[in-house]
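To: structure desk
From: M.T.
Subject: fold request, one chain
Message: Could you run this one when you get a chance? Sequence is below, nothing fancy, just the single chain.
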Amino acid sequence: MLTALIVEDSLTDRERLTHYLQQSGITVIGVQSSEEALLKVQAKLPDMVFLDVVLPGQSGFEFCRDLKTNKQTQNIPVVICSTKSTEADKLWGSMLGADAYLSKPVDQHQLMATLQQVMS
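Reply: Done. Structure tokens follow.
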């Protein structure tokens, strides 16, 4: 069974993503900050990470860069889910190694298409 780590400080957005992913049979671990996410990643590598940009402490962009520059985590697909959805934000996410970028509120069909894309 696949495991997704959701790094999202908004309870509403975290619950929405959790619901969508669990409907697809994916186990979900939810945390509110990059610092909490790092602890989860160190304990057990997830199969994918869904990452907000605006987080307390370290930003999602910084956390994405850290994951993608670490040999142990560089191959984990990272999907950024953010209200920051300008072309510049999407380009910056891509430059930092994000595998996909979804705008909030996340659409379930778009999420499923993105999941297939990053897991294939």
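Reply (cont.): The helical segments are 11-23, 34-43, 60-68, 87-95, 108-119. Let me know if you need anything else for the meeting.
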